[in-house]
Amino acid sequence: MKSDNPNVRSIKHMAFAVRDAAEALKAYAQFLHVPADTALTDYPKSKNRVALFNLGGIEYQLCQSLEKGGRFDQWIEERGAEGLHHICYEVDSIDAALDHAQAQGASLRLCKACGVKGSHPHPEGYVAFLDNDAGGVEIEFMQVYTPEELEKYNAYKGI
């Protein structure tokens, strides 16, 4: 059955909480032919290391906390295992998506990387997290930047 939610365009990315991004990447390289030389990028502000690649038309993020008790480390400890942390859904309008979700009883979650609740700028677009999981998986919305908005963000350099 197809959803009739007009706000969701597609999956933007899926983020997996892992203990060691380099080790997790080895499995993707071995079993799914993801390039073994995929870059690992450290994000000092959010204190995460991320391996980012596309597989089957979907962007994957293997996310490792760089310090004990960090966002992904804490998530793994609470659940006792690595796994799918969140799915980011691309939307035409983040405000419309949030209004729709909140009308259905959702509340907004604090973005742990930025300390902001609700829509705010990230490297690829405006994002917001719901404080309501779907089957234990966090929900993120992203309104991808227009070229003009991307230029403005690059001057701002948020996360």
The CA-CA distance between the termini, in Å, is 37 Å
Radius of gyration, in Å, reads: 16 Å
Could you tell me the number of beta strands? 10
Roughly what is the average pLDDT, rounded to an integer? Answer: 91
Poorly predicted residue ranges: none
Structural class: alpha+beta
Strand content bin = 35-45%
Please report the number of helical segments: 4
Shape: globular
Most strands sheet = 10 strands, mixed
Q: Order of helices and strands, N to C?
A: EHEEEHEHEEEEEH
Helical content, roughly? 25-40%
Q: What descriptors fit this protein?
A:
4 helices, 26% helix, alpha+beta, 159 residues
Strand and helix layout:
Elements: E1 8-17, H1 21-32, E2 40-43, E3 48-55, E4 58-65, H2 71-79, E5 83-91, H3 94-103, E6 108-111, E7 116-117, E8 120-121, E9 125-130, E10 138-144, H4 147-156
Parallel strand pairs: 1-4, 5-10
Antiparallel strand pairs: 1-5, 2-3, 3-4, 6-7, 6-9, 8-9, 9-10
What does this structure look like?
- By secondary structure, the protein is an alpha+beta fold.
- Helices cover 26% and strands 38% of the residues.
- It has 4 helices and 10 strands; from the N terminus they run E-H-E-E-E-H-E-H-E-E-E-E-E-H.
- Strands 1, 2, 3, 4, 5, 6, 7, 8, 9 and 10 form a 10-stranded mixed sheet that branches.
- A hairpin with a 3-residue loop joins strand 8 (120-121) and strand 9.
- The longest helix has 12 residues, at 21-32.
- The mean pLDDT is 91.
Outline of the structure:
The protein contains four helices and ten strands; from the N terminus they run E-H-E-E-E-H-E-H-E-E-E-E-E-H.
